[in-house]
Amino acid sequence: MSPTLPPISSIQSLPQESQFHILDTLFEPSPQLHTLMAPVLSHQSFSSYDSLIDAVGGRMTALSAANSPQDKEILEGILGSHPRLGESSPAAKEHMSELSRKEQANLNKSEGEGEAEKLRMLNREYEEKFPGLRYVVFVNGRGRDVIMEDMRRRIDRGDIEREKEETIQAMCDIAKDRARKLQKSE
């Protein structure tokens, strides 16, 4: 069954499990995101899914600016919830949402084992350079070569604070795209 989104006006009155399912659909399943957003979802109404997503992005950005180990752990849990780009192992696919599988379909097309291995190596290098983070980008139909060039640029830049900003922005861009597509399909 394809994911769906309820009317935005109903979110505040939904059971918490349903609220978390909305977050999981827009972003990726993350207990840390649930913890971060539970008080907001139960006490605030939103005029649109974009405004909800902006609220999530604002909360993540605030965590990024904080210096406590707990805030860092929560943020890294959220940012690390996205699947690695180009991962196609059965275990990786099992933990990937249906929407992520569709979004990454172009990256996972067989372009030779060399390309797939290069992407795996870049993922490892990225995660070693930026502990606690995972490379996240709004793929939006871009090919593996363009994505790998961007990964290389970001690894070489070496700025972890900028990585957090770009990852948060990418997660919000992906969530907004998902919301638009899911609302059109209703």
UniProtKB/TrEMBL annotation:
InterPro entries: OHCU_decarboxylase, OHCU_decarboxylase_sf. It holds the Pfam family OHCU_decarbox. Residues 13-180 form the Oxo-4-hydroxy-4-carboxy-5-ureidoimidazoline decarboxylase domain. Residues 82-116 are annotated as: Disordered. The keyword Transferase does not apply. It comes from the Eukaryota. Residues 92-116 have a biased composition (Basic and acidic residues). The keyword Amino-acid biosynthesis does not apply. Keywords: Purine metabolism. One of its GO terms (biological process) is purine nucleobase metabolic process. This is Oxo-4-hydroxy-4-carboxy-5-ureidoimidazoline decarboxylase. It comes from Byssochlamys spectabilis. The lineage of its organism: Eukaryota, Fungi, Dikarya, Ascomycota, Pezizomycotina.
